[in-house]
Sequence to fold (694 residues):
Amino acid sequence: MLVIENLHATVDGKEILKGIDLQVDAGEVHAIMGPNGSGKSTLAHVLAGRDGYQVTAGSIMYLGKDLLALSTEERAREGIFLGFQYPVEISGVSNIYLLKAALNAIRKHRGEEELDAMDFLTLVKDKMKLVEMPEEFIYRAVNEGFSGGERKRNEILQMTVLEPRMALLDETDSGLDIDALKVVANGVNALRGPDRAMILVTHYQRLLNYVVPDRVHVLAHGRIAKSGGKELAHELEKQGYGWIENEARV
Amino acid sequence: MGGPIDAKESYLAAAAAQADRLPGNAHSWLRQLRGRARERFADAGFPTTRDEAWRYTNLAALTRQAFAPAQPDIGAVTNDTLRAASFDLPAHRLVFVGGRYQAALSDPPKSDGVVFAGSLADAMARAPEQLQSYLGEIGTVEIGALAALNTAFLNDGAFLHLAAKTVLERPIHLIHFAALNAMSVPRTLVVAGEESCATIVEHFVGFDGPVYFCNALTEIALAARAKLTYYRVQEESAQSFHVGGVHVRQARDSEFVSNAVDLGGLLVRNDLRTVLAEGATCALNGLYSVSGRQHVDNHTVIEHAAPRSTSRELYKGVLDGRARAVFNGRVLVHPDAQQTDAQQTNNNLLLSDDAEVDTKPELEIYADDVKCAHGATVGQLDPNQLYYLRTRAVDDATARDLLTFAFANDVLRRFKLVPLRAELDRRLMARLLRGRVIREVELV
Fold:
């Protein structure tokens, strides 16, 4: 589904990604771990298409297409979803408005009919139960006055409504208490399926107790320093990142 | 006539020439009021940028000519033009052309001794004693030269009187058509009795064509526990000058909401001032959307004159082209106005590199037990918000529209008069989004 080859990227002229190779197939969940500053979030934003994140070499193929040739919104319409580490507040735009605009833009792109208000509301309320969000939240402005945990739940709500082919979750687990973490994990697990792939960017192994990944990669200094199965995450939990960073330097 | 026109002298001469023919002249207090106004204007003249309150607003373009006072016989307005120019609101309608009441175009509430809404000239003739303690007393001629200029020509306008405990179910919609190629001096006096409750909409419109000058003055007196929601929509023609004063006196526990929207005019200056007695509250909401070479200046003064009064102020502006905006929000807390609670916010969104904003809060606090907060911002669309929306499949142009509209909508959503808000939504979308429509305007 996603094939990344020799990806180099700079932010503000500084090279952050220095040759990433990664393949994620449909049905798989990959965890990308690594210390702060290793390039995890940069990779997520390069995939989503953030302005100012310059790809200087390499390629990204997504569902057989050149992902880098697509704009941010085209990527979203093609099924890429980025759950933000720090979701922004947008006062004056309600959650429900944003969800509907997003879902209908995606459906239109797929040649499907736009959902009418009733069907849409039924769908959203159903998904809200999954993320244990009170109904009044959808009428509030996007993330306005939301706690950190509520913002993350809101990201998961958006993801479950939009049903992406490829979900990227950028440190969605950070700053969550155990209950919120379980809610996020439930949302992610509910979305797992044979047609869908997920990349969980995380600093800690915590989330992986609830969402068991197929593959774990460790990023260090802008490269994948080590890849393995779910047991790699446990090893990192015990030993920290130091040994991998040292290996990567050699 | 050779040499530059002396606008001040021309206006003074015109005012003096009219003085004997103005309505209500039989009453010495009215004669004296106009006389004082002429003197005040003669002393002060037009403000210049050397005056602190006019530092950013230069009236040179206005004073380059002297407009003739609007004449009584202006026949351009019909029911059709009215419908096209203003809003169709479920409201009583009072229409003014060049500041003069047009009975044939109006649909006032029945005068029943409890409510009066009609011509100020009429009231001057029939019941001047109802006016005397208010007219020129709330918006005194001492306040400013332009208020004095309006008062020097004071001849007609709107008078609204609500007896105590009157609750007006239908809003009152005042439509002011400016006279072309002339100076109009619309005047409105609202006297709301104890525990009365009403909604008033003042709409200023003008036809495209010759330049004109609208110098409006509104005075509002709220008795104890009265509640008034006051909408003011300024849509003068693109070449015109508009100067508007709104002066409010709030008695104990009264509630005043001002919702002001500026869309039109070339050079616009608004002065809104309210004085709050004990326990009174006010909410001043403002939105200005300007482009091209428009200049809009909003000066507000909130005087907390007694304990336990509350003010909330939110003014937002969207500027495009080479437009310029000024916001000056003065909050004055008197020494005995303990437990004052005041909040002021001014946010500006610049859609072009050439637009410019000068924003200035002015807090003068002479009491010690108060809560006063203020904040001002000037900025462009937030790239992080744009990116977030685009990752949610919203295309770039729509994301920009959405954020721009949402910014302005933050003010409009506070407007409780839904049909008016819907009209303003449409106008705003036409301006900001060049006609593109955001579906389901109910964004929040």
